[in-house]
User: Fold these one by one.
Assistant:
Number 1:
Amino acid sequence: MKIATILGTRPEIIKMAPIIDEISKRDIDQIVLHTGQHYDKEMSDTFFKDLDIQTPDYNIHVGSGTHGKQTGLMMKGIEEVLLDEKPDIVLVQGDTNAVLAGALVASKLHIAIGHVEAGLRSFDMTMPEEVNRRAADVCSTMYFVPTVESAINLLAEGYSRKNLFVTGNTVVDACFRHLEIAKKRGIEEETLKTLNIETMENILTLTMHRAENVDVKERVVSIIEALKELDDMNIIFPIHPRTKNMLEKFELFDELNNLEHVHIIKPLGYLDFLQLTSASTLILTDSGGLQEEAITLSVPALTLRYNTERPETVTAGGNILVGSNKDAILENARKILDDKDFADKMKNAVNPYGDGDSAKLTVDAIEEYYNKGLLDIEAPEDIMTSFSRKMKTVTDDISVSEFEGMEDALVHMVFDGENMRFPTDDLNLNGMVVSYDKRE
Ligand code: UD1
Ligand code: UDP
């Protein structure tokens, strides 16, 4: 079997690293294709080194640009590589332009696609990420969903339960594996110097780069106004290149940088960043990955967004959405910093993203599909049967797979009272309402 992994930005490298590592331990060929969307050393190369994975076999160097140009260049480059390499499955991760380009190209070449971190929804179609992840899901063959909530999003959109694998999120694998290594190694001398603080105490780690925040001056100003008042904290701000450009364009960089308690530094490598976040009292972010890492590391997070495709972090109690609203940021930050019980409750939130075995579960599922011939994407030869969509209240002890066998049906959604359940093969349906597709 041959697996091709497509990645292009910092979070994709971090989250695919555990899977690349897992594949390399098995009797599987793999190629890694970098789109070149992130190209600065500290946004790309550093992570292959820090996460100890092979460097990409291909880099198609698309660089920065408008969405259309960037995605178009990626599609051209990815197609050339896939035609040449003929992998059995292409893996894409998350919601960047690489995911859109990789999924579109592979589906037209009839190559199976595994979408890692599928099923997330912010329900905000103004976000480029929401468009990318939805389009990739339409094209995919296997869906590696981090939580039951994400699986239910896909069921609600009509995807077959059979192709959904609840694996947790590989960010937990990366976090668990590398935090120990990071702590043993200690923070790099150069990073310590640039941090410009005496102790690793009262740390507030800040990251922001979402277009809907940093490209809008009023939002940036409002966030800066809140940061000014948090002057009892050491605010460490490893700045994303997009954010640096925008702060300079809005002539706000110096104003922020001149605040004594704010330390703007270059983006950090993964090992240094993990040490910073795990030592933080509070994380203020609009990053997707960091919302997940905060709850994994038991650090309270305030998310600088009005919606999140990671609502599990909020319902678990580890994350609060504050938008870019100065009052909401300050009110919640003060509660976390001044009220120990409140902070402890947030720290004790249960991590919804699994136990750190997501990469293993993902590669196990791919091997199983390969062995069953389910990665062969071919035009159907059976004449299509019609089916009707039905619903039933089940009053016997019967599992999902028994129900499907008996009814010649595919179970779709399952309601247990007013709550939806994910229909695993062995779920006992007694007392539940089931919707299903019945072949005629
Ligand atoms: C991209 C992803 C976003 C993800 C983020 C992770 C899309 C649509 N967006 O956003 O989902 O959360 O990566 O960090 O795929 N730049 C550099 N050096 C680099 C890369 C970028 O200077 O190595 C600058 C360029 O000026 C560029 C800007 O940053 O125009 C934005 O980069 P881009 O890749 O378009 O989007 P991100 O904001 O990084
Ligand atoms: N990260 C890092 N160094 C930094 C900032 C972030 O290693 O200076 C890591 C962080 O631990 C997380 C990932 O980058 O795993 C998040 O990437 P980003 O916020 O760019 O993208 P998003 O997750 O929002 O797509």
Note: DSSP finds 19 helices and 17 strands in the chain.
Number 2:
Amino acid sequence: MGKWLTAKHAAEQVRAEVAKEAAHWRAEGIVPKVAVLLVEGDPASAYYAETKRKIAGKLGIEFECRTMPPDAREEQLLDIVKAWSRDASVHGIMLELPLPGHISASDVAAAIDPLKDVDGVTPANKLAVMTGEPGLYPATPQSCIRLLQAYGYTLEGKNVTLVGRGQTVGLPLFHMLQREQATVTVCHSRTIDLKRHVERADIVIAAVGHAGLITADMLRPASVVVDAGINEREDGSITGDVSPEAFEAAEAVSPVPGGVGTLTTALLFENAMKAIRLQTQAAKKETIL
Ligand code: NAP
């Protein structure tokens, strides 16, 4: 019989710290502000942007969402992101992905000032994740690790099977898990016999986008499972990559919703506070020079 690794408590703790730091910056005369670029056409993206607006309001963080039509040109998006990157009143910039197919998400991401890149999508921050240099790391991979830590699960020496090697979650998480001293097996769409790799892991992290991919028969009573997948059902509700029966078969499973995603949103704002610290330090350095 498993237990749920819910993120409510951990997310509340992160949000409380963020609210405290946001109040500190306001007292210093800096009004924290996050800006989100949304291209219409993906209902899930619009929902996520709205969720961020609500949370920002509760944390004392200003929020701007610029909504563009589905046929917006790449140059228009680049102009917006470049303007925010130059604007000292904007401290964090996020892109709601996916962007329409005629726009290169990586080109738009590359135009974000790395010091304002709160979701770690710029080349500089991607490199930082790989090398372990300081930087703004993507929120969802951080969330997977922090959720485990919140329940006392350590990673050092553990066999972790990571299912998915996508740019947003799996790939950065692979580097971060190794730095936590885990032994990491990465599975993907060409992996032969997924069950064999999942079943021998102490910790399984699913980041695919395929509902029910991780089934109960792949797990052992000692398996700990983090589900980062988000899949939309026909009725509009969301579900993860782990099948509902897996809960009974494993020691612990993170729920969807209420798990990785909940903590991810809080960590985006934690990154926004870190971004202000980095920008303030950079501004001080410039003054000295
Ligand atoms: P992605 O870029 O589409 O990558 C998906 C990965 O899954 C790829 O590496 C793919 O393999 C692998 N895959 C596909 N089918 C597979 C199969 N049958 N068996 C094993 N691996 C398979 O996705 P992403 O952007 O990294 O996102 C992954 C999931 O996380 C999605 O569900 C997304 O919605 C979710 N997500 C959650 C949050 C959150 O806050 N909770 C945030 C962002 C994303 P190949 O490399 O071989 O193609």
Note: The pocket of NAP is lined by residues 140, 163-170, 187-191, 194, 207-210, 213, 228-230, 260-261, 264 (CB under 6 Å).
